[in-house]
Fold:
Amino acid sequence: MNIDTRCQIGLLCLIVMNMSACTSHPRQSIDLQEYLKGFLGKSSNTIRQDINLRSLGFQVANTPQKTSNQLIYTILRPLNIPIPMVTNVDMRGNSVAIQSGNLGGNSYDLNFNCKVIFQLKNDIAESIQYEGKAC
Structure:
């Protein structure tokens, strides 16, 4: 595969990722923020017992991280980008399809995540922050 082909594939991947990031799950994002507001003013133990992000359709890392002033949940958002077929011409002028990228599959699998961070004061959630490309 030549450099121009790799650049074109890389550009296509970036365009697809940007489009997906802008358009994926807009309703879920709003629902998530509204849902999480209900946990403000509650203890970290109550949040751990009552929160159910899977009910909103999110994939979540198994165990939340707890520090003295934060409770952190990680939402996973896998993204599958199809690999385009590249056409090459052999010595006789015939078109030959070449699979670019990894040889074992027809797509790149990327995993984005969003960290939902409850800021705690005296073990009570005072605010929520979001970090990551998938928020």
Notes: The radius of gyration is 21 Å.
